[in-house]
Specification:
CATH class: Mainly Alpha
Strand content: 5-15%
Number of strands: 2
Largest sheet: 2 strands, antiparallel
Order of helices and strands: HEEHHHHHH
Helix content: 40-55%
Distance between the termini: 21 Å
Radius of gyration: 16 Å
Length: 150
């Protein structure tokens, strides 16, 4: 999910497990405050949405979105959210396929409907458009991985 929403804050303290009847489960996901371009101003969001400068485009923005995960302890730079998902998909291809198959069922109308439930004093139209574009671009990138999984 972090790769889809561009969450940059999934570090070692933002994971949890739940223990029920001696079974361990991954807890539902939480702490998504650093995703969907929330930390960007509307001015910057609009510029990224409309620029012809690829380096400043929203496409470049999603491609550079870093996680708080590192491939190795000695790495200086964290993985991108996409690379973190890719690496996990190589280790757990069945889980990745299941998640990607569910992601494929989500439409932009589904997500827009959720955004439109947020009161207008809490989110701007520009923020919605920016978040929708992040979801669209990342969904496309992630779904292309399905064909590469064993």
């Amino acid at each position: 999910m972090d790769a889809w929403i561009g969450n940059t804050d999934r570090h070692h303290e933002n994971w949890a497990f739940i223990s029920v009847d001696d079974k361990i489960y991954l807890a539902p996901t939480y702490d998504h405050a650093s995703s969907l371009g929330r930390n960007e101003s509307d001015e910057k969001r609009q510029k990224r949405l409309t620029t012809s400068d690829y380096g400043f485009s929203i496409q470049a923005y999603v491609e550079k979105c870093t996680s708080a995960l590192y491939a190795k302890n000695s790495d200086k730079k964290p993985l991108t959210t996409f690379d973190a998902f890719f690496r996990a998909s190589q280790e757990y291809p069945n889980a990745a396929k299941a998640w990607l198959n569910n992601l494929a069922k989500v439409s932009s109308n589904d997500t827009l409907e959720l955004f439109e439930r947020i009161p207008s004093n809490l989110i701007t139209e520009t923020a919605i458009n920016f978040a929708q574009k992040i979801l669209e671009l990342n969904q496309f990138r992630l779904l292309k991985l399905r064909d590469t999984l064993p």
